[in-house]
Design goal:
Blueprint: E1 9-13, H1 16-27, E2 30-39, E3 46-55, E4 61-66, E5 85-89, H2 93-105, E6 111-115, E7 119-125, E8 131-137, H3 141-155, H4 159-175
Helix pairs in contact: 3-4
Length: about 190
């Protein structure tokens, strides 16, 4: 038993039309579908909503709910704004810079390019207040991951160093569509 991929990720939006226009114009996503209902299918509660779906590439779907009868959406006041976000991968640094330029020319405040060693990112907020990250891999990603893991192990034989090595191994393997090195780690048996 194993999850195949994310089917969709859903967020709340303030205005369905504005949200679709932002993601199609700013991030070149394709609008897929909008569903309007007067009740919630899973709970059967009477609650009108609009459910939007956008194609985020490679089978990934970004969805939003507009909830016209509910109080204005808020944020968790105990969580910094930079923590909760959705990150989309772009091909390379040139593409990242093209998006940055496009967003800024269209009046979007963009933070970065931020260097995270193994990848580089820009950050901005959508019209709903959701933080969005665009990230591209560093051309030397595999070598950087290996050096980071080697450095951690060379300086520290603690559980933290072993965890850093395992995370680096897992990230590198997952990035290339490979499986976990130890089948007993993180697996649910059939």
């Amino acid at each position: 038993m194993k999850i195949e991929q994310i089917h969709h990720v859903a967020y709340r939006c303030k205005d369905a039309k504005e949200t679709v226009e932002f993601y199609t114009k700013m991030l070149n996503m394709d609008f897929v579908l909008a569903i309007a209902e007067d009740h919630v299918p899973s709970t059967h509660e009477p609650d009108p909503y609009m459910h939007l779906f956008l194609d985020a590439g490679n089978g990934n779907v970004l969805a939003f709910f507009e909830l016209p009868t509910k109080p204005e959406m808020g944020r968790d006041p105990n969580t910094p704004k930079w923590v909760q976000h959705i990150a989309f991968k772009v091909k390379d640094r040139d593409t990242l810079l093209q998006f940055k330029d496009h967003l800024e020319k269209n009046g979007v405040d963009v933070l970065g390019v931020t260097d995270h060693s193994i990848f580089h990112s820009i950050y901005f907020f959508d019209p709903n207040g959701h933080r969005v990250e665009l990230a591209c891999p560093d051309p030397e990603e595999d070598a950087l991951l290996a050096r980071m893991a080697d450095s951690a192990l060379a300086h520290d034989d603690s559980a933290q160093a072993r965890a850093a090595q395992e995370a680096a191994d897992t990230y590198s393997l997952a990035a290339h569509g490979l499986d976990w090195p130890d089948e007993s780690v993180g697996r649910v048996e059939d």
